[in-house]
Amino acid sequence: MRLKILLATVTGEMLVDEACDELDLGPTQLASLRRQVLQGALEALRARPVGRPRHSAVVTDEEVEAMRQRIAELEQDAVVLRSKLELAILPLLGGPSRPKRRRRSPAGGGEPGPAPAS
To answer: pTM value?
Structure first.
């Protein structure tokens, strides 16, 4: 109701004296209240960025260093896990297998060679 009366004084629909009587305020108090209402309205209509305001976090040097150490640990873990994964899937991909050993002949025990000449 007070806002309606204050706006009526702005638009000229109501005289200041009538508004003062209605709100039981003096002319100075009415002018001050009217100024506050109009300032608030202007502030509410001011263009603002869309969405929530950004929250700027303050990070200490110690926190930054701890994060760097954690990143280094995680990167090392990633390298180890990647290597393990590659070794685990290598047989499934038909990768290199172990070289086959030559069996020794039980009789000669030496290397096979050309047949002896008679």
So the answer is: 0.41
In the block, residue with structure tokens 């990070």: 59
Q: C-alpha 10: how far from its chain's center? A: 48
Q: Which two tokens stand for residue 5?
A: 């009366």
**pLDDT tens per residue, range 42-55:** 888 888 888 887 78
pLDDT at 87 over 80: yes
Concatenated DSSP letters of the chain: -HHHHHHHHHHTSS-HHHHHHHHT--HHHHHHHHHHHHHHHHHHHS---SSSPP-PPP--HHHHHHHHHHHHHHHHHHHHHHHHHHHHHTGGGT---PPPPPPPPTTT-S---PPPP-
Contact 23, 5 (CB under 8 A): yes
Q: Position of tokens 């995680």?
A: 74
- The whole-angstrom separation of Cα 80 and Cα 2 is 72
**Under 8 Å between Cβ of 37 and 3:** yes
